[in-house]
User: What shape does this take?
Amino acid sequence: MKHAVIVMNLGTPAAPTPDGVRQFLKEFLSDPRVVEIPRPLWQVILNLFILPRRPQAIAPAYEEIWDCGLDGEPVTGSPIDYYTRRQAALLQERLQKSVAGGGSMVVTHAMTYGKPNLAETVAELREQGVESFTVLPLYPQYSATTTGAIYDQVAKIIRGQRNIPDISVAHEYWRNPAYIEALANSVREHWEQHGAAEKLLMSFHGIPKANTRKGDPYYHQCCGTAELLAEALSLPRERWEICFQSRFGKAEWLQPYTDKTLIAWGESGVSSVDVICPAFSSDCLETLEEIAVENRANFIDAGGREYRYIPALNARADHIDALESVLRQRLAADLF
Ligand SMILES: C=CC1=C(C)c2cc3[nH]c(cc4nc(cc5[nH]c(cc1n2)c(C)c5CCC(=O)O)C(CCC(=O)O)=C4C)c(C)c3C=C
Ligand SMILES: [Fe+2]
Ligand SMILES: [Fe+2]
Assistant: This one.
């Protein structure tokens, strides 16, 4: 039997231009999993206020991260696209080697928004004779806004089909020891190279606070991840903090906010900070611009002296070990 693993991440514009960004944001921000404002009202806000302005404003930031060389890797195009492809290719090598009948194991990638999309990827693989699928969202922590959106897409694909494929979605993996170990290794290596800063800031992508009240477990999983990472590093509580970045719109999002925390630290005499973003499997606009550039300025302008961003796990071998471990556990269930 032919089995396919599809690793998935959020997606990115096709080009770092206002048009490319507009097309991407239109698809992404139209998903009711991402923005829960009632449709007619949201469509007006999106089409009248966001899509005419935001693409112009953020295209230059995309331009900055496009084709950037990172960690000696020749990143071409958008970093999230580059690393998601790399992760799939590296997992393909691992799984081909050791899963019984590995020749019939395909590992590929898809994006929730933009290209390549999940529906087309599944359709192509079925044409090639693939009968069963494991979808691995590259989100260590579950949120309805990310992993939930992928479940919706799977549901849409199978709706109306008679012979639906055997398909499962990995829900979350923040508790997997290999994932925590990869994060801890990346911090230890960073400390060996640069010395440890006074504080380690663990910055997660935010979501609206109301989502947590309505039952989204993301906040609790982020707190759990932060505690496991601190424990793996034997870091006392006063040396680290958790915070949430990338707030969008006027509603209250998860707190403490990353920018406000860094400004308060700079002002109160914290002199050095290391920042890690454990919810991002790949570097992307939200880490390379918002964290490595914008929030550095927030901290330094407020009086801080040293600010160092610890890269995402990207193509690190221990990251691929972690994803392989998550997949092997799932595959044991999915392949019987
Ligand atoms: C509007 C609501 C948004 C929610 C909810 C949200 C949740 C969420 N997002 C990620 C991961 C990524 N987000 C990225 C970019 C991005 N996110 C939003 C909005 C929401 N995200 C926007 C509008 C954008 C685009 C940039 C901008 O306009 O500011 C990215 C980077 C993509 C890239 O091209 O590099 C990632 C990755 C998570 C994990 C998450 C909830 C847990
Ligand atoms: Fe986002
Ligand atoms: Fe952002």
Notes: Residues 2-173+317-334 form a domain with the Rossmann fold fold (CATH 3.40.50.1400). The two ends are 12 Å apart (CA to CA). Residues 30 and 43 are 8 Å apart (CA to CA).
